[in-house]
Write a structure and sequence with these properties.
Layout lengths: L1 E5 L3 H10 L5 E6 L4 E3 L6 E4 L1 H6 L3 E4 L6 H9 L7 H8 L1 H11 L6 E4 L2 H11 L3 E5 L9 E4 L5 H13 L7 E5 L5 E9 L5 E3 L3 E6 L2 E7 L4 H17 L4 E10 L2 E8 L9 H4 L4 H9 L13 E7 L13 E4 L9 E8 L3 H14 L8 H9 L1
Helix pairs in contact: 1-10, 4-5, 5-8, 11-12
The structure holds adenosine-5'-triphosphate and magnesium ion (MG).
Catalytic activity: 5-amino-1-(5-phospho-beta-D-ribosyl)imidazole + hydrogencarbonate + ATP = 5-carboxyamino-1-(5-phospho-D-ribosyl)imidazole + ADP + phosphate + 2 H(+)
Subunit structure: Homodimer.
InterPro entries: ATP-grasp (IPR011761), ATP-grasp_carboxylate-amine (IPR003135), ATP_grasp_subdomain_1 (IPR013815), PreATP-grasp_dom_sf (IPR016185), PurK (IPR005875), PurK_C (IPR040686), PurT/PurK_preATP-grasp (IPR054350), Rudment_hybrid_motif (IPR011054)
């Protein structure tokens, strides 16, 4: 079966690697050039969206910031899963918040801002502190403003106003109540076309400067898992979703609140490559290709450490972990690979992370020590 992935980054690459044993042939459509490329070598396989769609059996996506006309053309083909509505929802916080409300899941109170009046209304409705996020094109914490106190109000408005003036007409800003969370967790789940679902255990995520540093899959909190799974089902059903869907949550004293969703395989699910019976990439492909879903059980406590920008990775660490390089040139803030570490127990995982923390530069890998400390809590 031939699967076309919209987007030609590391997620398409890892789908190709996971799909090969199932005889699934993955090609990647580079939305920037309009070329269809091999997801590993980037060799050009074809030009133009129409011929890419024509030669695919199934179309899916590795990211959500895709132009609406490209999504519409894919939807028209009848081959696109999870489909244009789900991708548009993940790519536009305005639609996303409306879907979360419609699904009845707990999420931060918000207000949509286009004009100064909306900004003032957001402040009187939600109070301070506030976080503002661009509705479109946000990732890795980009396109965000934080308002801590009344003193920040005027300067923030000037910045938001300038941002909106320079953006296209579809752009706007969403104000959200600032949630004083204890930690951030995410759920990666998969839904088949027949409505079957399978979910991985919750992952705890540590961010540095808005970018995911470390994900830890070692928790067995049944109450939290149950809350997350109910919300997953509500959202996935509301979107009639097919494929892997990731949901980021705030854990506020044992109650989960949805932060955002990603209609695709997700960075916080990379641990499943070594830590689960069937990884998120294979499960996404199984779902969109109409194959039975795979076992999402965790095989062993696992941590995933992102390699971001220019990093030194001593070869000796390979005796304790798996390296996944994306074949990308390093640039500040760019994810170029990740490290998966598995261990027989939570304690052993903490020991391995402590050892890794001694081999890796703490400015290049800022959260490894913290991850080890969290495992010991
Ligand atoms: P991603 O890379 O996950 O796509 P993003 O840029 O889309 O990130 P968010 O996940 O919405 O943006 O926000 C980035 C981070 O900002 C969150 O991981 C969280 O730490 C913080 N944050 C977001 N919303 C809130 C909120 N309402 N209250 C407190 N902190 C928040
Ligand atoms: Mg996020």
């Amino acid at each position: 079966m031939k699967v076309l992935v919209l987007g030609a980054g590391q997620l398409a690459r890892m789908m190709a690697l996971a799909g090969a044993p199932l005889n699934l042939h993955i090609s990647a459509y580079d939305v920037n050039t309009g070329n269809t490329v091999h997801p590993l070598t980037h060799e050009i396989l074809g030009k133009g969206l129409a011929s890419a769609i024509e030669s695919a059996d199934i179309i899916t996506a590795e990211f959500e910031h895709i132009a609406p006309d490209v999504l519409a053309q894919c939807q028209e083909s009848g081959k696109f899963l999870p489909g244009a509505e789900a991708i548009l929802t993940g790519g536009d916080r305005r639609i996303e918040k409306a879907v979360l409300d419609k699904a009845g899941v707990n999420n931060a109170p918000y207000h949509v801002i286009n004009l100064r009046e909306d900004y003032d209304a957001a402040i009187s409705k939600l109070g301070l502190p506030l976080i503002l996020k661009s509705a479109l094109d946000g990732y890795d914490g980009k396109g965000q403003w934080r308002i801590k106190s009344a003193e920040d109000l005027e300067a923030t408005w000037y910045s938001v106003e300038a941002f909106l003036a320079g953006a296209d007409d579809r752009q706007c800003v969403i104000a959200e109540t600032f949630i004083p969370f204890d930690r951030e967790v995410s759920l990666i789940g998969v839904r088949g076309a027949n409505g079957d679902t399978a979910m991985y255990p919750l992952t705890e995520n540590i961010h540095t400067d808005g970018i995911l540093s470390v994900s830890i899959a070692a928790d067995d909190n049944h109450a939290l898992q149950q809350q997350a799974e109910l919300m997953f089902k509500a959202i996935a059903d509301a979107l009639d979703y097919v494929g892997v869907l990731a949901i980021e949550f705030f854990d506020v004293d044992g109650t989960l609140m949805v932060n955002e969703i990603a209609p695709r395989v997700h960075n916080s699910g990379h641990w499943t490559q070594q830590g689960a019976w069937v990884c998120q990439f294979e499960n996404h492909l199984r779902a969109v290709c109409g194959l039975p879903l795979g076992d999402t059980t965790r095989v062993a406590p696992t941590a995933m450490i992102n390699m971001v920008g220019h990093v030194n990775v001593p070869q000796e660490i390979m005796s304790d972990c798996h390296l996944h390089w994306y074949d990308k040139a390093p640039r500040p803030g760019r994810k170029i690979g990740h490290i998966n570490v598995t261990a027989a127990s939570r304690e052993k995982l903490a020991e391995k992370l402590t050892k890794l923390g001694q081999s890796l530069d703490s400015t290049e890998f800022p959260a490894v020590k913290e991850a080890a400390d969290r495992l010991r809590c």
